[in-house]
Design a protein that fits this description.
5 strands, 8 helices, periplasm, signal, DSBA-like_thioredoxin_dom, Thioredoxin_domain, globular, 52% helix, disulfide bond, alpha+beta
Length: 201
């Protein structure tokens, strides 16, 4: 077989292997959801601070999110499956409002998963917060207990239900494509291909 033909066949085989498959790599949401930023491909990572798989994914998705094209918007959402998870949604909402998410998101995952600090417990969370440099603990806690954060917790509960999130991490693209469980590299490859798919719709 000629070298050029062999190379072409390898290329075709690689493309075929790379194709994502509905039901294996992703599913369609039963009820597609509206996107927050019309005109952009929205990507949402549904995660939880107690999730070891989210912890393992974080370095990869943090690097990936910094290289996104201009037509893609990315955000995270702390899921709420029950009352016991509301404090984590409260913590995440406070990170967002106080603009400390970029600084404290990864450390919070590390605290929960590796260091066994229960950030869902207000006393433990307050002690952990005191160890984070440059954070005004008093101001943070005022926001943490605010009405605005109460509303964000209710929203997190609703959005978890609306998107029918069954496990973490789940990444939803364009309000309708939800990833299935995979290793970080494979998961992000699926997301990249779903972004391309969403652009074509």
């Amino acid at each position: 077989m000629k070298k050029w033909l062999f190379a072409a066949l390898l290329l075709v085989a690689g493309v075929a292997q790379a194709a994502i498959v509905e039901g294996k790599d992703y599913v369609l949401l039963a009820k597609p959801q509206p996107v927050a930023t019309p005109g952009k491909v929205e990507v949402i990572e549904f995660f939880s601070y107690h999730c070891v798989h989210c912890f393992n994914l974080e370095p990869s998705i943090a690097a990936w999110s910094k290289k996104l094209p201009k037509d893609v918007s990315f955000r995270r959402e702390q899921i709420v499956w029950g009352k016991q998870m509301e404090p984590l949604a409260r913590l995440f909402a406070t990170f967002n409002i106080t603009k400390t998410l970029d600084r404290l998101h990864a450390p919070a995952l590390t605290a929960m998963v590796q260091q066994r600090v229960n950030l869902a417990d207000e006393a433990e969370m307050s002690k952990w917060l005191a160890t984070q440099k440059g954070v005004d603990g008093k101001a943070f806690m005022q926001v943490y207990k605010s009405f605005g954060v109460n509303s964000q917790v209710a929203r997190a509960t609703q959005i978890t239900r609306d998107y029918a999130i069954q496990g973490t991490p789940t990444i939803v693209v364009a309000g309708k494509y939800a990833t299935l469980a995979a290793e970080p590299a494979q998961l992000l490859r699926v997301v990249d291909e779903l972004i391309v798919k969403a652009r074509g719709k």
